[in-house]
Amino acid sequence: MTPLERAEARFGWRLVAPTIGIIGILILYPIVFNVYLSFFDVKLNGDKTFVGLTNYLQLITNPDYYSSIVTTGIYLFGTVTGTTLLGLAVALLMREPFRGRGLVSAAILMPYFAPVISVVFGWQFLFDPVNGVFNWLMVDVLNLWDQRTNLIGEPGSAVWVVIIFDVWKHFPIAYLLILSKLTSIPKDQYEAAAIDGYGPIGRFFHVTLPEIYFVLATVVILRLIWNLNRFEDVFLLAPNVETLPVFTYYQAFTGVIDQGLAAATSVIQFSVLCVLIWFYVKKILKW
């Protein structure tokens, strides 16, 4: 390198050094410290005893851990599938201009930007077993049920309420990503497909779907990454739905507190996230 190139390189490192420092403090240090804690028995007074892989062995023999994995799998499948399909359906409906399209778009985006705590309280009232609108509709109006049911109070039904809530709140981001790609597809392709004899369904599978494949794959992988880490929506709406983040929280801060075991849980979860991120970067972004 010439002296000028070395000077420019040093100047570049000085420019990015504050960012690297902030990333190291806020992201890398907590990750490294969490991995460190996973090999210790952590006491409430701060004392730590090295136990090696004991936390991991204890975790893989804990039936509650496997139950949380099953719950997380149901939650991920329901939310990712629902978010993607609903976002696709709404994007297809909103693709063509019509009067009042701006107002409708604003209404669609409203759930995504609404504060989580406020909409969670609204949904809890909606499914309240005594005064909730859902039970009133099912029991008193439609007479489909014989008695009122606390859907959020039962873990088996609460997970489906959480899934519906997550789909309703987060499908707008899928809608925006898919719509942006739909509007960029040349109309010539649809005209050529129509000349070849394809109807609306044929044009969807032979023109629309290949064009939006990359966006759909991006939505699916990103939703998997985000929802595997999602805590606030699930815990605030139905704390009895123990997905992996909620299970980790209970291990670390409630009951018989075991922060070493919670750290081991989060390390395994972080490893899964790294695999998903690697897949997204290598197979979808093709970096």
UniProtKB/TrEMBL annotation:
Keyword Membrane applies: yes
UniProt cross-references to InterPro entries, sorted A to Z: MetI-like, MetI-like_sf, UgpAE/MalFG_permease
GO cellular component, one term: plasma membrane
Superkingdom of origin: Bacteria
SUPFAM superfamilies tied to this protein: MetI-like (SSF161098)
Domain ABC transmembrane type-1: 69-280
GO BP terms: transmembrane transport
Pfam families xref list: BPD_transp_1 (PF00528)
CDD domains: TM_PBP2
Membrane association type: Multi-pass membrane protein
Keyword Cytoplasm attached: no
Subcellular location: Cell membrane
Transmembrane segments: 12-37, 74-94, 106-126, 158-179, 204-226, 261-281
Keyword tags: Cell membrane, Membrane, Transmembrane, Transmembrane helix, Transport
UniProt family annotation: Belongs to the binding-protein-dependent transport system permease family.
UniProt protein name: Inner membrane ABC transporter permease protein YcjO
Species whose genome carries this gene: Vibrio thalassae
